[in-house]
Amino acid sequence: MINIFNQPKNMEQDLPKTLNSNQIIWSDLSFLQRIILTNDGTLTGILEQYLQERIQLLKISEEITKNTEHIAALELEPGNQIIERSIFLQGTNSKKNFVYAESKIIINRLDENFREQLLTSKTTIGRLWIEFRLETFKEIIDIGKEPANELSEYFVDTTPETSLLFRTYRVFANRLPIMIITEKFPENYFLVN
To answer: Is 45 left (phi over 0), alpha (psi -120 to 50) or beta?
Structure first.
């Protein structure tokens, strides 16, 4: 995976190069996998429609820290408070994990009520954007695949060698980047065209 945190780029400007460097053969992906990887909307609604199951958030970790390095993709100098969190998007009935996501969120660029709900509720970020009517712009900056490794134990029918497809995007509000999110799912998920 390319270190996108210190070298922002717009994936749409160089899609073929990005896909080749991350060993993705676009034509091997299902229609839904391509939509998930390139969609600039929220993933929760797409998954619910496809799976016909409500999706819930399962927080794995959430920590308020100070960044120690410059994060170019967030236009953030060292010493700022950020939320680092890891979650799964999980089926409410099946309890199956469908997507793993990691995010870095700049605390002082969030509305106070939004921030409180993000930290205290089990509501997905996409639903919070809707609830708070937060106007956002999302920019995909990387797409690729990598081995599942230790994440394989959290997904059905995966091994450490199973590839995870991923997308990384940054989210802007008021013309400032407020968060960067990487979403990953097993390559053997969402195969129906």
So the answer is: alpha
Structure tokens at 43: 């993933």
Contact 149, 92 (CB under 8 A): no
- The first and second tokens of residue 11, run together, are 């994936």
* 106 and 179 Cβ atoms separated by less than 8 Å: yes
For 189, half-sphere exposure in the C-beta direction (CA atoms, 13 angstrom radius) is 25
Q: Measured on CA atoms in the order 172, 173, 176, 181, is the torsion positive or negative?
A: negative
The string of pLDDT tens digits covering residues 106-125 is 999 988 888 888 888 888 88
Q: Which domains does the chain have, with CATH numbers?
A: 30-186 (3.40.1410.10)
Q: Let me know: does 19 contact 143? Beta carbons within 8 Å.
A: yes
Whole-number average pLDDT of the chain: 86
**Number of C-beta neighbours around residue 94 at 10 A:** 11
- Residue 49 has a CB neighbour count (10 Å cut-off) of 9
The pTM is what? 0.85
